[in-house]
Amino acid sequence: MTDTASRHDKQQDQNVAAHDVAAPATRPEWAAARRIVVKIGSALLVERGSGQLKSDWLASVMDDVAALAAAGREVVIVSSGAIALGRHMLRLPAGPLDLEQSQAAAAVGQISLAHAYQDFARARGLTAAQILVTLGDTEERRRYLNARHTIERLLALKAIPVVNENDTVATTEIRYGDNDRLSARVASMVSADCLVLLSDIDGLYTAPPNSSAAATRLDVVTEITPEIEAMAGDAGTELSKGGMKTKIEAAKIARAAGCDMVITSGKVDNPLSALTNGAAATWFLAPSDPVTAKQRWISGQLEPKGVIVVDVGAEKAMISGKSLLPAGVTAVSGGFDRGDVVIIRTASGHELGRGLVAYAKADAERIIGKRSAEIAEILGFAGRAELIHRDDMALNRALANGPPPQPI
């Protein structure tokens, strides 16, 4: 992942929340981003009048995705559109839909949407994968881990995950939800470098550009102040519930995870290539890199559910940047489940750090002190080799006896 903190030092020294200096042809944040989440809204995907998929536009987006993949960059797409497509197929009336109508439309439209992504990806030598989630899947720890591991594996296999809201069963998301915030949570979950919100407007303006001649676009935002929030107004159509307010909320989520976010126009063909060529946009720069943000989230924002005590060998291994294996654990306590946060204690009782545990307490008790190769025989299933993976821990360097751990 990129070192976002060092990239932003110069801008932070300016002590400004936003400025309007013209961006270079390709911003360094975009050039350096290796893992990218792209959010596509219904209004960009579906013709409002006919209810038909904008095939030519989507083809241009997938051309961009193919180019990014060929350059070794990883792309996750968060896509709306199922309800907008399905309501046309079911001949539902114009205007707001009730909950049951929305769910029915999503059930029908989801099939067409998935096939469209599959066909456009296949035509470019890519493999598309569909993942249906709700906001709850990014908040509840076990579901969060399942979704994250699935997306990570798909990316490792060079597939393009297409994430959609599971509107056929989710009620809250249909009534109040939006894919702006969902895409930010997905970006946080996969430790993305950059979140791209393709919009019907090319960024955040000081006032609605269609109603004020004095409105100017902010090129860079380094802090979301009350003044920045006041610039966002409600907007949307029957096809799109998202407005600038939800995009500001998305920026808060992304920045807290160390992920840069950019709002740019999706009303042009090849919008991702346009970013490479210096397209008009508003960049929300994160104050720290994804790894640091994740460590901070683990160590300070979740309630520990138990304690894991490690021996001296495991302590030294973790300090050097390695994962915690069952063989190095001497005791466990508490009532934790898979994906919960636990405290990691040394043999002398110091809190070495915290981490997301890969096994529930009952299973952990059975495998502590054992070699990873014995896990399958003991538990009856092939679980993870690590009790806590190094990517899922945040160590307390002040208490650790030795050099600081390697970046994880």
Description:
With 408 residues, the chain is α/β, with parallel strands linked by helices. It has two domains: 4-295, Acetylglutamate kinase-like (Carbamate kinase, 3-Layer(aba) Sandwich), CATH 3.40.1160.10; 302-395, Archaeosine Trna-guanine Transglycosylase, Chain: A, domain 4. It is 38% helix and 17% strand. It is built from 16 helices and 14 strands. The protein has helices at 4-13, 28-32, 42-45, 55-70, 82-89, 99-122, 141-156, 172-176, 179-189, 226-230, 244-256, 271-276, 290-300, 312-319, 361-367, 375-379, and strands spanning 18-19, 35-40, 74-79, 127-133, 159-165, 194-199, 220-221, 260-265, 281-284, 306-310, 329-334, 341-345, 351-356, 393-395. It has a nine-stranded mixed beta sheet, with helices on both faces. β12 (341-345) and β13 form a beta hairpin. α4 (55-70) packs across α6. The longest helix is centred in the first third of the chain and has 24 residues, at 99-122. The termini are close together. Mean pLDDT is 84; it is low at 1-23, 235-242 and 398-408.
Work out the number of β strands: 14
Overall pLDDT metric: 84
Describe the global form: globular
- CATH class call of the largest domain: Alpha Beta
- Give the helix tally: 16
Main structural class = alpha/beta
Number of domains: 2
Distance between the termini: 10 Å
| SSE succession | HEHEHHEHHEHEHHEEHHEHEHEHEEEHHE
Fourth-tier CATH superfamily name of the largest domain: Acetylglutamate kinase-like
Largest sheet: 9 strands, mixed
Predict the CATH topology of the largest domain: Carbamate kinase
Which percent range describes the beta-strand content? 15-25%
The value of Rg in angstroms is 23 Å
Low-confidence stretches: 1-23, 235-242, 398-408
Provide the spatial order of strands within the biggest beta sheet.
1-7-9-8-6-2-3-5-4
Which second-level CATH architecture of the largest domain applies? 3-Layer(aba) Sandwich
